[in-house]
Amino acid sequence: MRKALQGLSPYKVKPEFDMIRLDNNEAFMSLLSSVDLGKLQETLINRYPAESSENLVKAYSKFSGFPANNILAGNGSDELISIIAQYFLNPDDVVVVLEPDFSMYEKNAVIMGAEVNRISLNDDFSLPLEKVLEEIKARKPKLLFLSNPNNPTGQLYSKEEIEELILALRQVEGVLVLDEAYIDFAGESPFAKTVLNYGNLIILRTASKAMGMAALRLGFLIANDQIIEGISCIKPPYNVNTISAQIGAQLLENPNVLDQFLLVQLNQIAELEEMLNEFIRKIVGAKLFPSHTNFFLIKMNDAKALADFLYESKIKIRFFNDETMKAVRISAGTKEEHAKLRAALNEWSEMYAKRI
What we know:
- Its EC number is 2.6.1.9.
- Residues 45-343 form the Aminotransferase class I/classII large domain.
- Pathway: Amino-acid biosynthesis.
- This protein has twelve helices and 13 strands.
- With 356 residues, the protein is an alpha/beta fold.
- It has two domains: 3-26 and 256-355, Aspartate Aminotransferase, domain 1, CATH 3.90.1150.10; 32-254, Type I PLP-dependent aspartate aminotransferase-like (Major domain) (Aspartate Aminotransferase, domain 2).
- The mean pLDDT is 95.
């Protein structure tokens, strides 16, 4: 094992299909009924997926408005993050990540032997812009990874803040990797029409969240011609499988289905927010943070106790217990799942009231 890899731990995911899953920010419905499965019977699984990948990129281009020549498809955003790290990073290059943020940014930087500089968000999870700008000037990072909206806080950073980061990175020949996995819940990206104007901006998108295609593992990288050409040199040629590409293209070519699906999710997100606001009013010191995603973060001292109780009630949520926070993250679900969650939260809050 390389020295840079020593100490890394696996990203383990335990399959628990008997649980109500409100922990992974997945969509709570399947769109498979909107797919013409008969077309898949004609799939030549003995052939490499070059044509289907090309059709997928064209479908995403038409759906998103980004030029097809400036899009690369990947086996989920995870693969694209890995490819970006492989392309840009030499050993001992500096990478800046925020804390908290998506853990795979740091992990891929470490794998490449880079030095990771973590910068904590403000107490209210807003962007510590001046501190980040100072670190960029002092450390001259090769890459800055940033999810917007942030995972796990749900916060949305402004276009002006991000543009300041792009400009500062340009001064030190650094690149901003802007992960917009949850942007569909927040509205249109402020960089949707201008990303190609920047020489040091990469946007990541995914079909796993608002589009409900997590099982297909479809991610998209958008950047200017030079970056696309460079990264294409190291991207595996057949990294998106034919079945995923064909199903993804079918759904992307039917935007009315995806728009209606997003609307259903937004209604459930509003229902969850109302429920959680009602819950935290009963819990001393608990704070629910505003979210522009399909999940909500609650900071509370008894975060682990709540997560354990819900787990025993067959409801799985995400629990965070590190230096930066004790918190739980809860994803939106179906009305039936919300009803069970509400009942469990009421039961726990009654137990909590008796303890205090």
